[in-house]
Task: structure prediction
Amino acid sequence: MQVSLQINARWIITVTPDDRVLEHHAIIIQDDTIIDMLPQDQSSQYTPTELLTFNHHAVVPGFINAHTHAAMSLLKGLADDLPLDQWLNEHIWPAESALVEEPFVRDGSELAIAEMIRGGTTCFNDMYFFIDQTAAAASHIGIRASIGIPVIDFPTRWAKDLNEYITKGLAVHERFHSDELLTFTFAPHAPYTVSDESLKTLQPIMDELGLAMHMHLHETENEVQQSLQTHGMSPIQRLNNLALLSPDFMAVHMTSLSDTDIQLLAKHQTHVIHCPESNLKLASGICPTTALLANQINVAIGTDGSASNNDLDMLGEARTAALIAKGSTLQADSLPAKQALRMATINGAKALGLDKKIGSLEVGKQADMFAINLDSIETQPVYDVISTLIYSASRSQISDVWVAGKRLMQDHKLITIDESALIEKIKRWQGKINPFHHHPTKAV
Amino acid sequence: MQVSLQINARWIITVTPDDRVLEHHAIIIQDDTIIDMLPQDQSSQYTPTELLTFNHHAVVPGFINAHTHAAMSLLKGLADDLPLDQWLNEHIWPAESALVEEPFVRDGSELAIAEMIRGGTTCFNDMYFFIDQTAAAASHIGIRASIGIPVIDFPTRWAKDLNEYITKGLAVHERFHSDELLTFTFAPHAPYTVSDESLKTLQPIMDELGLAMHMHLHETENEVQQSLQTHGMSPIQRLNNLALLSPDFMAVHMTSLSDTDIQLLAKHQTHVIHCPESNLKLASGICPTTALLANQINVAIGTDGSASNNDLDMLGEARTAALIAKGSTLQADSLPAKQALRMATINGAKALGLDKKIGSLEVGKQADMFAINLDSIETQPVYDVISTLIYSASRSQISDVWVAGKRLMQDHKLITIDESALIEKIKRWQGKINPFHHHPTKAV
Result:
């Protein structure tokens, strides 16, 4: 049988419910879809147009970055080691007010997508402004993306009021929603920047278009305390009263949670997006992943934007998630490597409602995946390939990446992005953004 | 003037007390020593035998890994996500009892040194058995090392009793102590495995030979509680009563500390070695670095052994130290990037008593350093080069490494180690060690 692609791999890490690892197997791909996985020595029935052999690699489902602000990659390292209010008020917001329009979002999104592909990410869930630029960049480059239609109760360069946020957002949805790689959510910024009235306005539109909601929630203890003072209840309880908690809701951050909050999340099968490095770096707190998982709540992983991380490295993020779960519970068996890998792949797919299509390597699913070379000093010996991947490997060992069967990186070189031209473009941005920079270090 | 080496760099991160960064400067090296640092356009007085130009790189003092067990790199990933007692009793100790003799330590040390050099580490502070093998490997490969003479109150394959631990250790010291790259410490394992009597026996020998002490201490709350029960005081107080706390003492881990403990450390200028990732992974706790630094205690960084990390990545370790300081204090300005870099370089030198010789790039110091290429997608733009190094860069961007002016890695290729031969050797070890492996993942 003629097929488009056969990949022979030393290991295939499937991320199926039984954490199956296939050794010396082949993945058979027809166009964008995995149609078979079988031992290499039994694959002679297939005649692939392209045959690739990875004798030292693991092939892994592509990472799903379940929360980011791609365009903010232009601001990475602009202002570090500062308290949250100073970081936002003196650096990030002034820079955004001055700069964030089409070219910033176009080039920042391209930079972020380049970094994500290089790190094995094949799908990202975005929240930002000028979403037409991010949608166009993702579509053009060929990465899968979920584009958040932003809503916030104050004017930005993107929109002046709720009506314009909705109208402009829906116009982009209309333009791109038939693109196979793109899906959309509504992305109200946070409970403290979006009113009950605004949220109620979104509900019928979400229902009509079948869109999920993606929102920052319980990012800090301070946010929860302010809500208790203002609304007499936690933000989660407020959203519950608005009937917004559901399997179509992605709650991002979630560092400060009462037992009641956790029970509400569990009851409504709400998804939690854990951004461990951003939460540490901005001193927001630590999401209680072990307790959430014990309550059968789906927990996915996001990097957050580059300005508070400062990278879009999902492999590193999964490792950090595994480490701080143990450190914060003082239980060394909390969040084992295979659980961290699920959170970075299939759980992100579940959060996005795409788990029938992506998130694991199984027959019938899209061929979204990467190959990582483990034959290096850093990752030898290999006793358990999932442990090696999560605890010892780094993203720089990822050599090849595919989305929907199309190769986006080949032997460490991006195919649909000109890296040198992109770096030159970013250097020009640096000159424009420099005035907003916090200078902790004396340069001579 | 004829000199051996001139390096022109885009940035030189000096790690001097004022955190100075030199742009477009040259480092002039004569044999093993930095003899000048000046603007490139004023360097015509020097005629270098070798001239290297790094237009996109930062040159940085080599990392000092202030605590590791190099040979345990053969056990990385052997048993992950297990409670400490199960990890030690069912996996690590049985494997060590069966395997740890000369060949294991020789090959494991070579693997660890290869990984460390590739990650920019130019000096490591080791604690293990068969120290002749580790000393010989370091000397042969050309990396700087501090070799800990092990002492533990039970027999191992290396020595049967206190007398033999001391005698064999001192024989290795005698054989290697004139090697310019090697220094020695006494390394009693931990307060709960070494008695007061044993520690008292070491004291006059340390004094006579001018050796410092390097010891696991307050690794877990449980260790402290057991000491309170057994000795009526914390391990730190016990060591203070033995007059062991001093600027010649390196206390490793230190996750569980009372105010009294901290005051004792400060009073005696005892050095603390922080191993953040190992402490997280084994769920030991979190060292209160912010409080220690506020008390003017010198804090350096170590990776610990590969079996509990699972890497020897000092750049990643410095980043984790910066992140968890913020996350555990809820202060986003805790442990800024430049402080994390100091902890990974000059503070390690201070702990080892080598800060006149290494730990920063200054005239008169040894040329121990690395070059890291920042012209990549992951590290553009660069607003503050130290922030970029700590928060965005990864060790895979390190291209060149020197120890005492001698290049150990050139354009990502190790010079004094045959990497392919080493990897083949490690694969043979994997076969021998596999029976001790914990199998969390089902392989087909």
The mean pLDDT of chain B is 96. Chain B has two domains: 2-61+360-411, 63-351.
